[in-house]
Amino acid sequence: MRAMLGRGLRPRGGTVVATATAFALTAVLLVWLAVNSLLGPYAGTPRRQVLAVASITLATIGLGVSVAVVVTALRRRRRLEEHMRPGELIVGFFPAELLDLGPDGEAARPRTVRLTLTNQRLLVHEPEQDPNPKISLEHEQIADAIDRGPTPSGGLHRCVLYELVLQDGNVLRVRMDAGTGLDFMRPRQQYLEERRREVRALITEAHGPTPSRPSQALDTMLVGGQPTVCLLELDEHYLRVVGEHSPPLADLYYYFHWEHMNVGQLEPAAVARLPEDWWSLRLQFHDTSAIVVCGSEETMRRVRDRAVSAGAAPLGTVRSPVGEA
Predict the structure, then answer these.
(1) Nearest residue to 239 via CA among 185, 293, 298
(2) Which distant-in-sequence residues (6+ apart) come within 8 Å of 23 by Cβ?
(3) Average pLDDT, stretch 208-225?
């Protein structure tokens, strides 16, 4: 069920689409008024002509703003994608305010920022036009994301407050308007809340047939043959790989019993555009299939320790036929 909910999540562009649509619809309405002023029963009167000219002028401005909003958003997204990692996908953009606490514990003047949540990390951009993030946080660096509920703000806006508690003890206090807070709630639960038996990892290689379905190649879990972020479920008896990109039925075949697995040692990932402190781990199944997963040292060590404790053998060990029964 969690996997199906994850697939239902689609990247959102914050308020860009809503803003562009509002201006475009307003422009269409103004054009309709202009046409009625020029072709209606009272067409030709000075007042109707003035109304038509004003409507067309405002419609042109509205369409220009709509196009400018979309073009700016696409340009910003393209600049951001130049800094993306292999397999990294944007989940959503969320305009917000970063609240710093002063020496007396009171909130200082808020700073306008833009949060970019991806399937690997949370980026904080300041100012909004700068594609380079001022703060880059891996999902696992965020120990907790607490919804503090409604919070006071200037004007008539209704806002909510989130506290992002980091592993190093620091806290980021983020204020969003109520609508953005609702949009942020579901991806926050999916990506920023730690689960006891689940980790996200980047799969960079997949070779051989799928053990539970030999007619299906194992590399079908890679989107377009490129490195893909998947959810690894570390169950008691098997490892299951859940791809947010793939149909639910395809995921049924991506499970691998620990006792039929050989696991390698942690090695530097050595993949372009990945963090230098990331590690890779090779998992081999029945000597015919294998996948290579990448992630932080903590994540990779967690996967390897779970595999070894559940019966996986070090890579290179020859299993007896009894062990594969």
Answers:
(1) 293
(2) 62, 63, 65, 66, 69
(3) 91
